[in-house]
Amino acid sequence: MQHSIRNECSSGVPKRNYAVGVKQIEKRDSVLTSKQQIDRLLRPGSSYFNLNPFEVLQIDPEATDEELKKRFRALSILVHPDKNQDDPDRAQLAFEAVDKAYKNLLEPEQKKRAVDVIQAGREYVEHNMKEKKKQLKKDGKPQFVEEDDPEMFRQAVYKQTMKLFAELEIKRKEREAKDMHERKRAREEEIETAEKAKREREWQKNFEETRDGRVDSWRSFQAGKGKAKKEKKPRSFLKPPKVKMEQRE
């Protein structure tokens, strides 16, 4: 479950009631069996649900490093393939999800990013609550919204947080696809440039290797042409007959 809500929120929920609600949720989730944990981690839509590492490990974002480590050990043992030999393949996938979530939270930047997303989800819900109450006041109605209930507030934050994680993941995949396309195009251009340079080198090499042959052929051609000129007979033209002049007596 999503435990991103702090003990004190601006929605007007009593601190004590909210704290009790969170503790009850944590207690309920902590007693899930191995099979139930595996089912939870591999449920439909888990590829997006599991983007939230705190959701995967079922631990509050404000938990200490020691609490985080303890929770990881307990959950990883629970879903480990060796403990679930009747369903090792699914257990392996669940274990990988737990391991990935834990490693993400060990990275300060990744952890801060997850906390920021959760906080943004909570602030979004609180803002909507204020807007709803403002409208109710304007309409002269009691200023009570369903999110005033701790459980409903938690669910609203959970849904909004999952939506934000999903949107970020979609954008990440789009950037990754774009980067991959650009790298592919750059690689193709690099290959094309290399092939062009190779063709030019081969042409130059062939040109150099056949130069002597071309020169010899030209010299032979020139020599044969000059010889032909020397041996060429002058043209003979038919001379017109001489006209004899008649003598007058």
UniProtKB/TrEMBL annotation:
Chain intervals with Basic residues compositional bias: 226-236
Domain of life of the source: Eukaryota
Residue ranges of domain J in the record: 52-119
A Pfam family the protein falls into: DnaJ
InterPro entries cross-referenced by the UniProt entry: DnaJ_domain, DNAJC8, J_dom_sf
Biased composition (Basic and acidic residues): 171-217
GO cellular component: nucleus
Main location: nucleus
Region called Disordered, residue ranges: 171-249
SMART domains: DnaJ (SM00271)
Coiled coil: none
Keywords, comma-separated and alphabetical: Acetylation, Chaperone, Nucleus, Phosphoprotein
Record localization: Nucleus
Annotated function: Suppresses polyglutamine (polyQ) aggregation of ATXN3 in neuronal cells.
Assembly mode: Interacts with SRPK1. Interacts with HSP70 (HSPA1A or HSPA1B).
Official protein name in the record: DnaJ homolog subfamily C member 8
UniProt gene name: DNAJC8
